[in-house]
Amino acid sequence: xxxxxxxxxxxxxxxxxxxxxxxxxxxxxxxxxxxxxxxxxxxxxxxxxxxxxxxxxxxxxxxxxxxxxxxxxxxxxxxxxxxxxxxxxxxxxxxxxxxxxxxxxxxxxxxxxxxxxxxxxxxxxxxxxxxxxxxxxxxxxxxxxxxxxxxxxxxxxxxxxxxxxxxxxxxxxxxxxxxxxxxxxxxxxxxxxxxxxxxxxxxxxxxxxxxxxxxxxxxxxxxxxxxxxxxxxxxxxxxxxxxxxxxxxxxxxxxxxxxxxxxxxxxxxxxxxxxxxxxxxxxxxxxxxxxxxxxxxxxxxxxxxxxxxxxxxxxxxxxxxxxxxxxxxxxxxxxxxxxxxxxx
Length: 344
Fold this sequence. Notes:
The chain is built from nine helices and 13 strands. With about 350 residues, the chain is α/β, with parallel strands linked by helices.
């Protein structure tokens, strides 16, 4: 890194060090116990100070704003994680199957973002229930969900899929694009403005890496082929990383996620299924189980086809899964919002 110390940005960083003040930086990459930070548009290698392990402090994730002590000749030290305005979590089974898990922890995937691009492809891999799950988790995170349907150039009826996705919840924004032909890419421009941070979320093979390359304008991410029989792919992104765009926006790319367990997402589920929660309030009995009770508004709504039975079953499934997770949850060091009210 020595060759960079003559630049104007490094002069700013060194001046802050001379003033004996901690330096603000953003975590752009995490690999085991090492961190890549962005500070004044420069990359810095860093490690955690030992107090993080001794005092059970919040561990940094991609997108976190941190305070560091700069080391010119080696790894800098992360001293503190600042408050998060948003965070994206899932359940961590510690490598066990769900049926054998006695307790679960929260795994925070990313922090401090404004939008979540929920990426799915218009081929055999399209899954409305999976998108609905991701929307619920996004609403719980504090960010705004935007569904990006890729490979639109290969689909004969794009509008049919858009209508299905828009039925998930009110005011859900949907963009159908092709990163290969450029079709619909202009729809993403309002989200790619200076200071905006976006998380990319989707299973392997949906075209996240191709999408990043199209947005950046260069082959930033490695792209892998998908299997023809089920349109699924191998994981191309192997770790979470923050990519800064020429516009000043940032993208947090995540590895393809096969399973995304719910972590304390009750509020996000209710927001996603606001039509169902409103109907539940009309039931005759407060403790209605929506099975045999007279005056059940839910049963009536399903009979009148105001709510589809499939949507009701998905709502019940997500609620039950969230309840199961809460019963087995233990507090982890990354479940806190931050260590102080200081912000960047």
